[in-house]
Design goal:
This protein is α+β, with helices and mostly antiparallel strands. The protein has two domains: 92 residues, Ubiquitin-like (UB roll); 316 residues, Glutamine synthetase/guanido kinase, catalytic domain (Creatine Kinase, Chain A, domain 2), CATH 3.30.590. The protein has 13 helices and 15 strands. The strands form two sheets. Strands 7, 8, 9, 10, 11, 12, 13, 14 and 15 form a nine-stranded mixed sheet that branches. Strands 1, 2, 3, 4, 5 and 6 form a six-stranded mixed sheet that branches. α10 runs antiparallel to α12. The longest helix has 21 residues. The two termini are 32 Å apart.
């Protein structure tokens, strides 16, 4: 009889879940002591090999699981495994400053310190499912919903089995493209859930003998596959504070400052939230994706979109009111993407920024340009810390170099294979 295994991992700089596994019988001890891992494991490229690392071969760390992140993962043969997400610690028990999940935790604390607020959010995840044929007229259609068979219902059941509340499953705009969303939760929980949902998409598709691909572009001229992050601000009393009917675009003063901080930081943010070369094949005019760093009201072509609410009581409208960040895809670690988003917004609140203070500029045209902005940004260095900032730059510049000679078609194929 097979013994169930447990995997402890994190969503790393490549946005992939990596770590180590062990028998479930050892879980209680591993929750206390974690699994050993080396610093350079963080520098594993999307393609597998370590292309560059500032850490060398020396040193050891502990990847310590958070018991609250327990998730049941369908295995390819129909069995089940367990996944726990965790944090990197040094051998003395202190947090390693290069931990992706730790970066998000620091951003959450920073926002709380400057404003007394927290972010609630939900990730919309688009993907392409190979288990249906590509057909004309499929976007948002009943036909596309029907042809996926039991995949969607199996995915929703798998999400719910991980104590995550599903919100929707639908056929999307692109060929064979679908979207799954879950209910909003506080930021750290939302990022953990985003990591798990991505893995469930891949796992449930694999069990059916197919693939669930989250790469940002399947073909250079096709429809992009994004990860949209919906967020709102809440006070310590558990009340939503994003909406002010008398504010600019319905935003409260603090929400306006938070959004303005994100817009101001967008050129550098792109290097974290759209962090792969094919990400920029998606961020083009005419692709229902952002190409400028702007805020739009009910506009899906904007980098940030103020979302609609269903009319109801003022309390219900305030709880629904949120802003959507659309310059992200699944090559980004949810921890890094959301952490930097929150840190940029917190800086906007700290400095009392207004939307009139920031201009909508074109987004970077490629990852190299985005990395130049990231390197030059003192604010971005603050999000990461100086050493982590330098390591991230090294990691992403090596990735760019690795694929620099590929045609756009070959580039898409490379990332489709991985994501």
């Amino acid at each position: 009889m097979a013994e169930r295994l447990v995997f402890i991992g994190t969503s790393d700089l490549a946005g992939l879940v990596r770590g180590k596994s062990f028998p479930e019988s050892d879980l209680e001890g591993r929750v206390m002591r974690g699994v050993g891992i080396t610093h350079s494991n963080l520098m594993l490229s999307p393609f597998g090999p370590i292309l560059a690392t500032p850490f060398g071969t020396a040193g050891d760390l502990i990847l310590l699981p958070d018991p609250a992140t327990r998730a049941v993962i369908p295995m390819q043969d129909g069995s089940e495994g367990l996944l726990y997400l965790g944090d990197f610690h040094k051998l003395d028990g202190t947090e390693w400053t290069h931990c992706p999940r730790g970066l998000l935790k620091r951003a959450i604390s920073s926002l709380r310190d400057v404003s007394g607020l927290e972010v609630h959010c939900a990730f919309e995840q688009e993907f392409v499912y190979s288990g249906v044929a590509e057909m004309a007229g499929a976007p948002y259609s009943l036909g596309a919903f029907r042809r996926q068979g039991s995949f969607g219902s199996t995915l929703i059941a798998a999400i719910r089995a991980c104590d995550i509340e599903p919100d929707s499953f639908l056929a999307e705009y692109g060929p064979r493209q679908y979207e799954v969303t879950v209910s909003p939760t506080p930021a750290l929980q939302a990022a953990d859930q985003a990591v798990v949902v991505r893995e469930l998409v891949r796992a449930v598709a694999a069990q059916a003998g197919h693939s669930g691909c989250l790469a940002p572009m399947i073909t250079p001229q096709g429809v992009g596959t994004g990860t949209h992050i919906h967020f709102s601000l809440w006070n310590i009393a558990g009340e939503p504070v994003t909406l002010d009917p008398d504010g600019l675009h319905g935003l409260s003063v603090q929400a306006e400052a938070f959004v303005a901080g994100i817009i101001r930081a967008l050129p550098a943010l792109c290097a974290v939230t759209a962090p792969s070369p094919p990400s920029y094949l998606r961020l083009k005019p005419g692709r229902w994706a952002p190409s400028h760093g702007d805020l739009g009201v009910l506009d899906r072509g904007s980098a940030l979109r103020i979302c609609p609410v269903t009319k109801g009581t003022p309390e219900n409208e305030a709880r629904q009111f949120n802003v959507e960040y659309r310059v992200a895809d699944a090559t980004a670690s949810p921890y890094l993407a959301l952490g930097c988003l929150i840190a940029a917004g917190a800086e906007g609140i700290r400095t009392g920024l207004r939307l009139a203070d920031v201009a909508a500029a074109p987004l970077p045209q490629n990852l190299t340009e985005a990395l130049d902005h990231f390197e030059a940004s003192g604010e971005a260095k603050g999000w990461f810390g100086a050493e982590f900032h330098a390591a991230y730059l090294m990691f992403k510049r090596a990735e760019c170099k690795e694929v620099s000679e590929l045609s756009s078609h070959a580039l898409c194929d490379r990332y489709v294979e991985i994501y």
